[in-house]
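Work through what follows:
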Amino acid sequence: MSTNTKQTSGIPAGELTELLAYAAKAPSGHNTQPWKFRAGGNTIEVLPRFELALPVVDGNYRELYISLGCAVENLCIAASHFQYDAVVTRQSREGITIGLTRNDACEENPLFRQVAKRQTNRSVYTGKKISGAVCEALQCVPAEEGVSFYLTDVDSPNGNRLAEWVFKGNEYQMGDPAFKNELLSWMRFNARQSAATNDGLVYHVFGNPPLPRFLAKPIVSLFLKPDKQNKADREKIRSSSHFVLFTCRTDTPGTWINTGRTLQRFLLRATETGIACAYLNQPCETPALAEAIRRSLPVEGNYPAVLLRIGYAEPVSYSPRREIKIA
């Protein structure tokens, strides 16, 4: 299954394919990869694919647009490797346009080498704490307009509150049959199923053995319960070092795209530093809990968008990506 592209571009076809392949290494909810690319002249458009949205967990498309922002940031970083200056000239609900200008003196972005290395690491971490100096360096990652992020130790009072909201989010989500059905629809239980789509949540990413779908689906369904999910998340949080909460000043597509760009910079910087990251977005995805965070934590009344846990861990398997083909 290929990522949708259309080329009428002055950018050489081989370079364009590579640029889009780097863009597509961005994270996305349930690994839906909800983007398509269009190229013309010296511009590339990153456009939403609403048919790949998650209507239950992401009904307002916030996480979809954050994923588009991550893809845009990857593309802009990769452009420097191919000696292009990249400038975002438009971003709206309809998509994002990036203009590329050849610059033989362009220096490669230091984060470029991390684009292919970055991964979402859902494993139990080592428990080793991130030093204050490293936290300070991470806190210095540049944020786009309207975006803020906050680091807090998982053992701090605010960390404990975030953990409790994660557990409460599990109660909401795992008690919702529609949420569980949507999650199961994106799970890939064996290599054959994964190869057929090159998307979704693949069995080996979770450390599960491959099984036929008719066997795996009912088994996994038995574990999609609040108490079991909370037990697993409690261990994962305990093994982590810090939470990182990303917030938006406005709850709009433009700021969500900016959140994705900021998030991707943070993820790449963390990867460069040897730090593992995983998502615990349950409180951001549950309106009542998101409002509680907004009103109760020192986030200047901003809207919570993404919650990470970070720490040190052994590498895990990578999620697949659809092949880039240029029509």
Summary: The CA atoms of residues 123 and 236 lie 7 Å apart. The first helix runs from residue 13 to 23.
